[in-house]
Amino acid sequence: MNFTRNLQTNLSKNVWTKTILLFVFFFAFAKGNAQILEPVKWTSKIEKKGNNAVLIFDGTIEKDWHMYSQFTPDGGPLALEITFKNQKGNYELVGKAKEGKTRTAFNDVFGVDETFFEGKAHIEQEIKIINPNLKTVDVDFDFQVCKEVCINSSKKFSIAVPSTFKMDEVPAVTEAKADETKVVGLAVDTVKKEEAAQPKVEKTAEAEKEEIPAPAPSRSLWSIFFIAFLSGFAALLTPCVFPMIPMTVSFFTKQSKSRAKGIRNAIIYGFSIIAIYVILGLIVTKIFGADALNALSTDVWFNLIFFVILVVFATSFLGAFEIMLPNSWANKADQQADKGGLIGILFMALALAIVSFSCTGPIVGTLLVEAASNGGIAPIVGMLGFSLALALPFMLFAMFPGWLNSLPKSGGWLNTVKVVLGFLELALAFKFLSNADLVLQLHFLEREVFIAIWIAIFGAMTLYLFGKITLPHDSPTNHISVGRLYLGLLTFVFTMYLIPGLWGAPLKLISAFPPPPQYSESPFGVGGSGNGAVSSESIKGLPEGAELGPHGIMVFHDYEDGLAYAKEINKPIMLDFTGYACVNCRKMENNVWSEPAILPILKNDVVLISLYVDDKRELPKEEQFTTAAGDKIITVGDKWTDFMISKYKTNTQPLYVITDLEGKNMNTSKPTISYVNADEYLNWLKEGISNFK
User: Fold this and answer.
1) Residue 171 and residue 567: Cα distance in Å, rounded?
2) 419, 318 in Cβ contact below 8 A?
3) What are the transmembrane regions (predicted)?
């Protein structure tokens, strides 16, 4: 107490001391509230490679943050964009920029696989210099980096080109001349612990479940192995493979001089099958390379071509024709197999792979592409799982020949398996067509159309399993088996499950396949209902600049329009700084805004203004400007980003602010709020609205 009293006495005697302390407190407060984050620090250099040069960019990413790769597909978080500013007439790009180690994890909010860097980002671009007088290579990076929040940043590099390309004359590291970084806050993608400068965020059970980064690479490979293993068993039950089991096992047991030798030969035969398919996976990986395969999986033409291939495979499985390798290949393999010994056994396995290609080829092709999209050794792991399932029965039945008596006899059921695989191939094909449509933003295959196609495919599959449809290679039958009945009931239930998706149901079981809900003819579902219970009548009479947003909440996307309406009806404004690629923005809208205690408040007690910081529409020329920091405001998203940073000293989303009609914050304890649970959000809303009144 004495210390406090003495301090007060001294302060009262010295007005300059008061002034200085006021400045100290001001800057301390400003620092404590500013949240302009730069989680990636960059360096760049140039190296010689033959007659060309290689630009090398290394980013150090802060702990718990991750930066999205240029190979993250459209429809999800924003991928890295690399722009070469002074390329024309100076240099040519040699291929696409290559990336160092990345991770891939599925994001069930956007329904895409995200590819991202952790810890370090390494990017290389080979160039061929055509202008001998070139002094610098100017490159712009636009990238998204995420933790609890996501930030879209741009980095400008100006890399000096040495007069010669002797390695000892190349600078080790050339820092970018332009150090200014334009920071645009975007989507929240992961839910971990909040930084001390941010309000404390409680993680809901749903958020924990959707946490990214998701599985480690090893877990992803195990997933690929398991799916491939099941696919191998499916191939085993086709007419091209299943009848070969008793024939092959009988051959080994009869031709071998002893039972032990027969078992040994059958095991060698099984390992030969595994070796053939694993080598195939190795060849695919070596020819294309992990990075190329990953990039290929998000390419428009690749997706279109593979759509056509899968439709051809499906048509073959359904019985229109058979895809077969040349007979000469099988004949040559048989001739080599007749020689006996280890080489003969190997060629017997090769003959099986060739003869059964009409059944196994479509499955193997699908597996290779799906595995290749994960990069690395995934194709090898996929082929290992597939071939192991294919080879195991041959080895096991050779060890225990008595088991052959328990095998079901070949018959029409084998063709049923093949036809069912054809329906599944056809359904999967439209996923690749959807990928291409999403990238091009053609809106040809929107969510409702995709779901309708799947309803038709699985509905036809149900009718086929119930015996109401017959296909060319089906055997005549007066009844269906119990197993076929159960499978028909399962597909019937699945078809019924899909139907509400036309009216806006989320269809979480297949969230990885159809386009996201916002990529649809109507975000509220067929008929305009959806989960917000919005009807066409409720859209009539909206004020100028307004539209119906999530759950039927009226929302403005321009600040001036929203402010004018708020003044007209005398209600507080809730600013919602959001992004089209904002994961946690969608989580807040889906899980928090929809709460019964919160939704009426957002509909009736505030004027909601949602400002998208990743809106790429270009502003009219007269509205474009350059900030004091030198950042060019060109797009609508730039405008709202600059507004958020200059006004609220933060660059992260989601960000919510309640203001009065003069722009003054209405919340005193927490002027702004981000990703929180429903209770905290509700209390914050009530406080802001109460202070406005």
Assistant:
1) 59
2) yes
3) 221-245, 266-288, 300-321, 342-364, 376-400, 412-430, 450-471, 483-503
The Cα 70–Cα 61 span in angstroms is 16
- What does the alpha-carbon distance between residue 109 and residue 214 come to, in Å, rounded to a whole number? 13
The C-alpha atoms of residue 405 and residue 427 are separated, in whole angstroms, by 36
Q: How far from the centroid of its chain's Cα atoms is residue 598's Cα?
A: 31
| Closest to 558 measured CA to CA, from 479, 640, 629, 492 | 640
Q: Which of 190, 180, 175, 159 is nearest to 67 (CA)?
A: 190
CA 311 – CA 320 distance, rounded (Å): 12
On whether the CB atoms of residues 548 and 525 are closer than 8 A, the answer is no
Interior angle at CA 334, CA 277 and CA 369, nearest 5: 20
Answer yes or no: are the C-beta atoms of 313 and 362 closer than 8 Å: yes
Which residue carries 């209405």 as its tokens? 666
Nearest to 645 by CA among 235, 42, 186: 186
547 φ, ψ (degrees, to nearest 5): -150, 170
Burial 264-282 (b: 16+ CB within 10 A, else e): ebbbbbbbbbbbbbbebbe
The answer to whether residues 100 and 123 touch, using CB atoms and an 8 Å cutoff, is: yes
Question: Strands (DSSP E) along 386-533, which ranges?
Answer: none
pLDDT digits (tens, 9 = 90+) for 216-273: 333 457 777 888 888 887 777 776 676 677 767 666 666 666 777 777 887 888 888 8
* DSSP-assigned states of every residue in 417-433: HHHHHHHHHHHHHHHHH
Q: Specify whether the CB–CB gap between 190 and 146 falls below 8 A.
A: yes
Q: Where does 448-583 show beta strands of DSSP type E?
A: 546-548, 554-556, 573-578
Local structure of 463: helix, strand or coil: helix
β-bridge mates for residue 626, sequence order: 632
The whole-model pTM stands at: 0.45
- Nearest-CA neighbor of 261 among 334, 342, 349, 347? 342
DSSP 335: H
Indicate left, alpha or beta for 27 from its phi (over 0: left) and psi (-120 to 50: alpha). Answer: alpha
Helix (H, G, I), strand (E, B) or coil at 355: helix
Report the percent of the chain where pLDDT is more than 90.
Answer: 21
Amino acid at 226: F
The rounded Cα 39 to chain-centroid distance in angstroms is 22
Structure tokens at 95: 């291929």
* Beta strands 554-556; 607-612: pairing state: parallel
Q: Are 258 and 412 in contact (CB under 8 A)?
A: no
Residue 49, classed as helix, strand or coil, is strand
210 contacts 96 by C-beta, under 8 angstroms: no
For residue 218, which of 350, 103, 54 has the smallest C-alpha distance? 103
Q: How far apart are the first and last CA of the chain?
A: 40
